[in-house]
Amino acid sequence: MAVKIKICCIASPEEAALAVKCGADALGLVARMPSGPGPIADELIAAITAGIPAGISSFLLTSEQSSVEIIRHVKCTGVNTVQIVDELTEGTYQEIRSALPDVYIVQVIHVTGEESIAQAKSVQDQVDFILLDSGNPKAAIKTLGGTGNTHNWEISSRLVSEVNKPVFLAGGLNAGNVKEAIALVQPYGVDICNGVRTEGRLDEDKLRAFVKEVKE
To answer: Is 204 within the bounds of a domain?
Structure first.
């Protein structure tokens, strides 16, 4: 099966259209975060989402940690997928599922060590997808994605083989390393932000080069 391609940190309708034209299967829209690139206002996320073609997934990256706030956030942006970038500390995934039955739930696991495998296993039955990234939720100022750094792909590879849900791989990917990452980790999809940007803007040449490497 072809590896899915998610282009993250989409900042405008024009970037969304470019990503889709170049072969993206999913677009990531970053809401308010403690740190990192690409956050945009909820109103802009809603406007971009409204123009995304059918068949393309729209991911809301939310740093909210309660089911009530996550539900509110999804409803005000109109996305079809919610990417929870931090730990769910109040409420349950089932509450999110019941309130948003047509929305896919993605839980981010920040691969900091072996413990990430157990963390993924503990949530796998409650979510639709797992996404592996290189943040550090326990840092003084949390990093919840968009670091541009790779993590230990050996751990990611083991995690993919041990969980029962499809896994997206993020963190420091680019056209130069994505083939190696796919070969080692065997993810369902890959997710990129910084690696297809130049001075913060989506770069068509980098985007096409990345998509070409993934598809090959």
So the answer is: no
User: How many separate domains does the chain show?
Assistant: 1
In eight-state DSSP terms, residue 2 is P
| Count of residues in the chain | 216
pLDDT at 120: 92
Average pLDDT over residues 167-186: 93
Instruction: Please state, in angstroms and as integers, the Cα–Cα distance from residue 99 to each residue in 51, 68, 78, 94, 102, following that order.
Output: 24, 9, 13, 8, 9
Measured over the CA atoms of residue 130, residue 197, residue 4 and residue 8, the dihedral's sign is positive
Helical packing angle, 13-21 and 204-215, nearest 10°: 40
Pick 102 or 171 by higher pLDDT: 102
Tell me the whole-structure pTM to 2 decimals: 0.91
Kindly report the CATH number assigned to the domain that includes residue 41: 3.20.20.70
Between strands 197-198 and 201-202, the pairing is antiparallel
Angle at 4 between CA 69 and CA 177, to 5 degrees: 105
Look up tokens 């990917």; give the residue. Answer: 173
pLDDT band with cut points at 50, 70 and 90 for residue 142? very low
Confidence of residue 152 (pLDDT cuts 50, 70, 90): confident
